[in-house]
Amino acid sequence: MREQLQSFLEYMRYNRNASVHTVKAYRSDLSQLLVFLDQRAAPRSATLSDLDHRNIRAFLGELYRRGDAGASTARRLAAIRSFGRYLCRTGQLEQDPGAPLQAPRVERKMPAHLDVAAMEELLAAPDAATPLGRRDRAILELFYATGLRLSELVSLDLEQVNLSNRLLRVRGKGGKERLAPFNRTAADAIRRYLPDRSLLLASSRAASPEAPARDALFLNYRGGRLSARSVDRLVRRYVVRSSAKIGISPHALRHSFATHLLERGADLRSIQELLGHSRISTTQRYTHVNAAQLTRQYKKFHPRA
Length: 305
Prior knowledge:
59% of the residues lie in helices and 4% in strands. The chain is mainly α. It has 2 domains: 2-89, Orthogonal Bundle (DNA polymerase, domain 1), CATH 1.10.150; 116-299, Intergrase catalytic core (hpI Integrase, Chain A, Orthogonal Bundle). The chain has a 3-stranded antiparallel β-sheet with strand order 1-2-3. The longest helix has 24 residues, at 184-207. The chain is globular and about 65 Å long. The model has no long low-confidence stretch (mean pLDDT 86).
């Protein structure tokens, strides 16, 4: 079945335009299933006839006994269903073996986020007197102004930024493009950083005429494109420095962006478009945050609460 799996992964990458991260996750999840099926079919190797709902149910049961989280099990079942649908479309199976199975209930947790005051402290944390401090301020401002994913921010090129109209052209999940407006504060922070970017790029070209990051918006001190790991580290460093919540990641800044919009009356459909969610159900997690705020207000102000 490994040949069918490889064909499926190529189909997802090149026909469905799935991201590298998505394909990697599919490969990992489905490879675990194939190992499990091989063990059940031993001494022979598993074939497509072993990919039925009984064996898949046994695989999910093994994940439960192993202590895997419900969200991880649900993700693996989703990968199995995608693989099954592909095999049906290509005529290799008559019916999707994952269709009869129900995904485990996934506990919806409150997204970690900062309140407005903590966010202001975080944005003020970088040292504006240094080139890298000005770069870091621009990164934090842009995160909070747009709700970008980490992968979207580090992949931004300079030509995707329209400073005069304060708009970004963002390539999101599945290669889908969207326009993301940003505020004047973020635009000013980017403008202050751009001369530093030019100096970083010039020093990089002096060292190597073929500068690989000449198009990237955010550069490291060597003139290369800033990596996702580096941005994650710098966000967490500034969180500690500003005495904000512990454990806040770049994704929590995205949650803060959405939560603050909702608290001030933005509708879910608009927030969905701004975040680049394909389903409104993904955006609805923020209603739980808003409900928690309403509960706090009720307990604070109702005479009998």
